[in-house]
Design a protein that fits this description.
Radius of gyration: 15 Å
Shape: globular
Number of strands: 0
CATH architecture: Orthogonal Bundle
CATH topology: Hypothetical protein af1432
Number of domains: 1
Helix content: 55-70%
Number of helices: 10
Oligomer: single chain
Length: about 190
């Protein structure tokens, strides 16, 4: 892989200007690093996939019919590891017309999705801080379909495809996000 974290951050800021989207990418990076650590996978590769997974979201105006394809082109030009590119593209599996089937794909889809649920959960607390959120609160909110309705619960449940219960997954992801809570403003 020829992309360093510094290069990835520079690339991220070249293509994404929305602060909330940048925070989502940083949160996903932290989550993916923690998942890789827990599963004994390449932490740098998984973290970079999390950081860059939505690289083209503004470029394609959030069009889910093409989201990921521009990122794929950009990352191929940079000589990024094909496995990482595959996971990034497959976090939006609809553009390939096939289901996610690798551990890396499932981890990224579940990991990037739960970040939204965790943030939404934190924002209902009076202090709006991740330190106030408990894993059980995230699981409880997951069951409330009207809460953060745009969060795809099926994607989050893909944590089971990587051998993690929802409880353990929520705890790993929440703890990872807490580590960068200052950066996230939460």
């Amino acid at each position: 892989m020829t992309t360093t974290r510094e290069e990835a951050v520079e690339l991220l800021h070249r293509y994404i200007t929305n602060e909330r989207m940048l925070n989502h990418c940083y949160a996903t990076e932290a989550v993916m690093r923690a998942l890789a650590r827990r599963l004994g996978r390449d932490e740098e590769k998984w973290a970079l996939a999390g950081l860059l997974h939505d690289l083209d979201i503004e470029l394609v105006n959030a069009d889910l019919n093409v989201h990921g394809l521009e990122t794929e082109k950009i990352l191929k030009e940079k000589g990024v590891d094909p496995e990482m590119i595959d996971a990034v593209v497959m976090h939006n599996e609809s553009i390939r017309g096939i289901k996610r089937h690798t551990e890396f794909q499932h981890a990224l889809a579940a990991g990037e999705t739960i970040t939204g649920l965790i943030v939404a959960t934190a924002l209902v607390y009076p202090d709006k801080k991740l330190t106030s959120v408990k894993p059980n609160s995230v699981i409880k909110r997951m069951k409330e379909k009207a809460f953060a309705a745009s969060v795809n619960r099926e994607n989050i449940l893909e944590c089971q495809q990587i051998g993690l219960s929802l409880g353990e997954f929520a705890e790993i992801c929440l703890n990872a996000m807490r580590e960068i809570s200052e950066k996230l403003g939460l």
